[in-house]
Amino acid sequence: MSTVEDRERLREGKRRTSKMVSKHNSEETNPCFKEAQLSSQCLMENNCDREICSPYFANYKACKKFWNDVMSARRQKGITPYLPPIEERSQVVDDYFKSKAQLK
User: Fold this and answer.
1) CB 67 within 8 Å of CB 83
2) pLDDT at 18
3) Which of 19, 38, 50, 77 is the most buried (most CB within 10 A)?
4) pLDDT in tens, 6-15
5) Contact criterion met (CB below 8 Å) for 67 and 32
6) How far apart, in Å, are the Cα atoms of 16 and each of 8, 20, 93?
7) Prior bond to 81 cis, omega within 30?
8) Which of 66, 39, 64 is nearest to 53 (CA)?
9) Exposure of 70 by Cβ count < 10 A (0-12 exposed, 13-18 middle, 19+ buried)?
10) Which residues are within 8 A (CB) of 30 and not within 5 positions of it... i.e. 6 or more apart?
11) Alpha-carbon span 47 to 42, nearest angstrom
């Protein structure tokens, strides 16, 4: 195989990889994108000291749990898409907090 063909194959692989990465690193497909970025930023600014960044990790974990619960509930009710569009997410969060306030 020639060098030109090898380079072309590597370029194609990089294109596919960057598409896959960008698909998961967008607010459209990841409702906790902002929390993930803040966690990463904290690690970079604090020389990867996980203890300092633990509040950011806890926030990200809570966010993922919340949206996984939302998707699970929507799936059980037959509502598609399972992850609400960006425009509807603030309403979902508001409804959640209103229902929690009524339980108290």
Assistant:
1) yes
2) 52
3) 38
4) 666 666 665 5
5) yes
6) 13, 6, 34
7) yes
8) 39
9) buried
10) 24, 36
11) 9
